[in-house]
TrEMBL record:
InterPro entries: Cyt_B5-like_heme/steroid-bd (IPR001199), Cyt_B5-like_heme/steroid_sf (IPR036400), MAPR/NEUFC/NENF-like (IPR050577). Residues 1-23 are annotated as: Disordered. GO terms for cellular component: endoplasmic reticulum; membrane. GO terms for molecular function: heme binding. It comes from the Eukaryota. Belongs to the cytochrome b5 family. MAPR subfamily. It holds the Pfam family Cyt-b5. It comes from Aspergillus sclerotialis. Signal peptide: none annotated. Residues 27-122 form the Cytochrome b5 heme-binding domain. This is Progesterone binding protein. Residues 1-13 have a biased composition (Basic and acidic residues).
Amino acid sequence: MSGHEPEPKRFEPKVPVQLDPPKYDPITVEELSKCDGTDPNRPTLVAIKGIVFDVSRNQAYSPTGQYHVFAGKDSSRGLACSSLKPEDCRPDWYDLDDKEKTVLEEWYTFFSKRYNIVGKVKDATNY
């Protein structure tokens, strides 16, 4: 026995999700802001560390959902700090402590197993 346990599957979705191959098309901050769930003709998007995920099928990110504050922006800092305050939903996270950076990485893993990657934030410097 090597003493190495396999990585826990705590981030795996309960129901397997068939994801499309990731797309890294540039999405401007302005375009991202229009994808906050308020326009039914646009997808609902959330960016983490500059990578944009399509969360349209999750009602939690809709205008009436509990996580709507994250929609239409790069909310890396808010996710890392477990904060729902609008002022924390911004991309800068470099000054966070290691624990918060780990939480952010865990959110990124969680999202990447559930939602299609549809782009990256144009000119983002936080990935």
